[in-house]
Specification:
The complex is a heterodimer of chains A (about 500) and B (about 500). With about 500 residues, chain A is mostly helical. Helices cover about 75% and strands about 5% of the residues of chain A. A three-stranded mixed β-sheet of chain A has the order 1-2-3. In chain A, about 60% of the residues are buried. The chains are: A mainly alpha (about 500), B mainly alpha (about 500).
Chain lengths: ~500, ~500
């Protein structure tokens, strides 16, 4: 049932207004924090208020204006979009608190918090986009808005990373634009409200190449190998940016775009007839393993996280490419599972860096004694990546393996097991280092991160456990993912 | 007042205003500027009324002295003529912008002349887009070209004179080509009225008709600075005073394109020739223009030089869209004539304000200016995002439509060229934004300069806002122009 409601546009509009207010009044520390936190809270409330309706099957739509004759700038909060929006807005609030603590000694804070809010605004826009053109609009805006955050340090290294980031993502955007144009020509519409708008009558070759163009476009941000090169370089950004943008907003925008292409533009039935989808699955499996292999050799904490992100994102892609209900459940649920675990990791890395100045893994010997709570959060996240039961990561792996069996491709289960082992190989040594090695030249006194850094970290770690043990996590019900799957598969 | 009286007034008012400027203004620059502003406000009012009228009733004509064509002179106002709105808007803003700029940059004795020439230039453009016969097309083209040459040279600097001379040589040759073509058409049909020529050309011999077409197109494309006929443009546009650059780059080159649309109207209607060969050439040249303009711009250090080269790219977009001869492509191209004018004026006026305040024009020297002139640089950034064609700005919709037109016409490869050409353009605009905001100043005193004065800032901000608004409300110009394009293309098949 579709209901016209202002809330799907209100959610991105709140962050957008926040941006304006931060730029106008942000020189004053109080007002900058007030508007950042206030808008984050307000948006979470708006998004959450739609949740009961969405769970009942109501779809909130709002058509702002006709962008061009025939294609509107429209917003639509369906189950899949709501899932992504809830993850983003929950994490925005937590990350804002963290960022306030983390950015205290930094320069250009007005610019930072202004663009920070703008990025989240566009992410919600991506989640609620009613058609591919609206999605593209926000997808490109996201690229532009993250640029000032990536190069925040303004060092030559940061500028270089920024250039690389723009080169990758803008070329990706160009592919998305081309793909949208051809889709419009073939289908006569760009709506994302149906389970598939293209049909076989367009011809198999055309559909295959169109799929390649669209997936390549979104795949840049989703960091599918070999399109992942920008992600490790972009780690030069301040940690809250890396956390929110590279664990949540930017990379998930790419993954979300791929889900929309697979489920709402092509549709499961059509893709089953195309050979190309299995190649996507192979590519995703390769990325899962290769990303982990590279991560093992990274000594810089954030770079290891970056390659882990590359690897984890392809769980989503693989789950979607399996074209089975269980696979889809894993893909959608992993948006949240990976986000909370990865952001915990990033918070830990940032807290350690701010508190002790250490950025390399080998320097972390004995850190578990000095920062016990932070490292406890790290342990939870690490177990989740390995896929230990009772953590969020287990749920993803379980459904992904079920999905692989459902589609008769049992070898992907082996990929899952191998990935677990690889994750263990690069996350567990850190735990050993932190708890069982004596620190070099430092006392064993407890010297925790300050509260604004610590509490967000612990809260995220708590979410990782909740997502693993119950389907009724506060504000993030698993049934939302299942509702999305039912719609996609017409069940 | 009737529509036809208004149509005549659209030309008479600025023409009379131009002639009276030295009388009213005398040696007082501010008074001359005030007078020119008043003239442009009245003209803009007339233009607005005309656009509303054409939206309500469709194309209409005015016959000078009541003599109907083919004997009398016809002024014809169709949907394409609605570009008078953007001409008046930019003209008005450029005049207001000039108040401080001209006083600062020009020798005092020339300020009165400057406003006279500015109004004459605008008169030429207004006449060019509403005239109904080819001879007056030529006359108005000469008015706007001659005043353009003088405006480029007006600062009296050596480089400006050289640039103006280069512009003059190329412009004069192109005018000759057009004039010769008009002579040919007259010999073939015995008429100078466009509709009349179109009707009579169907029986004419093919070879001379083709020659006339080739000469007209070549001549007009020199005015439009389509690659490889663009060599005059970068110097002229970069060296002219900034408000003049805005007009030259935003509007004057577009008259070549609007002229091309008139040629299409004549020849499509006549059905004497198959234009697909011409269209193929134009589409290819358009694609090459996009890439070459962007390529040259990357190597520029001078901010205005960079903007000048980007005009060549954008002309490439429009010519490609026109040459595709598909519904979407042509609509996109026509609307881009309008949108690019807005965007380029934002950029040139913004650059002018920065040069006015800082005295620097190289990107390296301008590092850090974003901190001292936040509004101007923000407006330039909006313009930059818009010209690259990022949604939701004005530039995006045109790119979307022209690329859609390429797919519709069965040449998706040109859509690819367009989309990736735009990326190329982004390379140098990101350099500009980087140097404004994210790099340490080379000249520390640049952090001390003041924001542009209001008479400059207000026009810039209005234009930047329009760059955004026209992106969000893009359906208005798109659906406005649609019937005209349908009519034009309808004559192709049938």
């Amino acid at each position: 049932m579709e209901v016209t409601d202002i809330r799907p546009i209100l959610a991105p509009a709140i962050s957008f207004a926040c941006t304006g207010l931060v730029f106008l009044m942000g020189r004053n520390t109080f007002w900058r924090r007030f508007w950042s936190l206030g808008a984050a809270t307000a948006k979470l409330v708006v998004v959450m208020s739609m949740l009961p309706g969405t769970l009942r099957g109501t779809v909130y739509v709002f058509k702002l204006l006709d962008f061009t004759p025939g294609i509107g700038l429209g917003f639509r909060a369906d189950a899949l979009g709501m899932f992504f929006a809830i993850v983003s807005s929950t994490l925005w609030l937590i990350t804002t608190v963290y960022a306030i603590g983390y950015m205290e000694p930094e320069h250009a804070k007005v610019r930072f918090f202004g663009f920070f809010a703008l990025c989240v605004s566009t992410t919600i826009g991506i989640a609620f986009a009613e058609n591919l053109l609206t999605l593209f609009l926000f997808y490109e805006t996201l690229t532009i808005c993250t640029y000032p955050l990536v190069i925040h340090e303004e060092t030559p290294e940061a500028m270089k990373a920024g250039r690389k980031y723009l080169a990758y993502t803008l070329i990706g955007g160009a592919f998305v634009l081309l793909g949208s144009i051809i889709t419009f020509q073939l289908a006569g519409t760009l709506t994302l409200s149906r389970p598939g708008i293209l049909s076989m009558s367009a011809g198999g070759t055309t559909l295959t190449w169109l799929f390649v163009a669209l997936i390549a476009g979104f795949g840049v941000k989703a960091a599918i190998m070999p399109l992942h090169g920008w992600l490790p370089s972009a780690m030069v950004a301040p940690t809250p940016v890396s956390a929110l943008l590279h664990a949540v907003a930017v990379v998930k925008a790419g993954a979300f775009g791929i889900l929309r292409i697979i489920y709402n533009v092509y549709g499961v039935e059509l893709l089953k007839q195309l050979q190309v989808i299995s190649w996507l699955a192979y590519l995703a499996a390769f990325t899962i393993l290769a990303g982990s292999f590279i991560a093992i050799y990274q000594d810089n904490f954030k770079r290891r996280l970056a390659y882990s992100t590359v690897s984890q994102l392809s769980y989503i892609i693989l789950g979607a490419a399996l074209l089975t209900p269980y696979g889809a459940t894993a893909a959608i649920a992993h948006i949240a599972n990976q986000a909370f675990a990865k952001i915990t990791m990033f918070f830990v890395a940032g807290s350690i860096q701010r508190t002790t100045g250490k950025t390399q893994i080998h320097e972390l010997a004995g850190i578990g004694y000095r920062m016990p709570f932070t490292m406890a959060a790290y342990t939870v996240a690490a177990l989740s990546f390995i896929g230990v039961p009772l953590t969020a990561g287990f749920v993803s792996k379980w459904y992904l393996s079920l999905g692989a069996l459902q589609s008769g491709q049992w070898w992907f289960v082996i990929v899952m097991i191998a990935s677990s082992l690889l994750n263990a190989a690069y996350w567990l040594p850190v735990i050993y280092l932190a708890y069982f090695k004596a620190p070099v030249g430092a006392t064993l006194d407890i010297h925790e991160a300050k509260p604004t850094l610590l509490w967000p970290t612990l809260l995220c770690a708590l979410y990782v456990i909740l997502l693993g043990v119950t389907t009724q996590v506060p504000g993030l019900p698993f049934s939302l993912a299942q509702a999305a799957v039912r719609f996609v598969f017409g069940m | 007042m009737t529509a036809s009286a208004l149509l005549v007034g659209l030309i008479i008012v600025p023409l009379a205003g131009a002639v009276l400027t030295p009388v009213v203004g005398g040696r007082d620059g501010a008074r001359a500027c005030g007078w020119a502003t008043l003239v442009m406000v009245v003209t803009s009012g007339i233009a607005a009324a005309l656009v509303v009228h054409v939206a309500q009733v469709g194309p209409f004509s005015a016959y000078l002295g009541g003599w109907e064509p083919p004997y009398g002179i016809e002024l014809r106002f169709d949907e394409f003529s609605a570009s008078v709105a953007i001409i008046c808007l930019l003209g008005l803003l450029a005049v207001v912008f000039s108040l401080r700029y001209a006083a600062h940059e020009l020798p005092p004795v020339r300020i009165g002349t400057y406003y006279t020439l500015l109004l004459l230039n605008l008169t030429g453009m207004l006449g060019f887009v509403v005239t109904g016969d080819v001879f007056n097309l030529f006359v108005f083209m000469e008015i706007l070209s001659l005043s353009g040459y003088a405006l480029v040279a007006i600062s009296g600097e050596r480089t400006a004179e050289m640039a103006a001379f280069k512009y003059l040589v190329m412009g004069a040759v192109s005018s000759l080509l057009v004039l010769f073509a008009i002579g040919l058409l007259y010999a073939l049909t015995g008429s100078l009225n466009m509709a009349d020529i179109s009707a009579r050309l169907s029986g004419a011999a093919e070879a001379p008709a083709m020659l006339a077409l080739a000469l007209l197109t070549t001549g007009l494309m020199v005015k439009a600075a389509l690659f490889p006929l663009h060599v005059w443009l970068p110097d002229a546009h970069a060296i002219a005073p900034s408000p003049v650059s805005a007009l030259l780059s935003g509007l004057v080159v577009k008259t070549g394109l609007l002229g091309l649309i008139r040629v299409y109207q004549i020849y499509y209607g006549a059905k004497v020739l198959d234009l697909s060969a011409l269209n193929t050439v134009l589409v290819w040249l358009g694609a090459i223009s996009i890439v070459m303009g962007a390529f040259f711009a990357i190597f520029q250090e001078d901010i205005k030089m960079m903007l000048a080269y980007s005009t060549i790219s954008n002309i490439g977009y429009i010519v490609m869209g026109l040459g595709l001869a598909s519904q979407y492509g042509m609509i996109g191209a026509t609307v881009h004539i309008f949108n690019h004018a807005l965007i380029k004026a934002t950029l040139f006026l913004g650059a002018g304000a920065i040069i006015y305040r800082t005295g620097y024009r190289n990107l390296t020297d301008l590092r850090g200016v974003g901190r001292s002139m936040p509004f101007t640089t923000a407006a330039i950034s909006v313009g930059a995002i818009s010209i690259v064609g990022m949604p939701p700005t004005a530039g995006f919709l045109c790119k979307w439509y022209i690329a859609l037109g390429a797919v519709q016409a069965g040449h998706p490869v040109f859509g690819v060229a367009l989309v990736f050409g735009a990326l190329f353009i982004f390379v140098y605009y990101i350099r500009m934004v980087n140097s404004f905001y994210f790099q340490q100043p080379v000249h520390p005193e640049i952090l001390e300069v003041k924001e542009a004065p209001l008479s400059m800032l207000v026009p810039i901000l209005i234009l930047a806002a329009l760059c955004l608004v026209m992106g969000l409300l893009g359906r208005i110009p798109l659906s406005f122009i649609e019937p005209a394009v349908t009519r034009l293309l309808g004559t192709v098949g049938g």
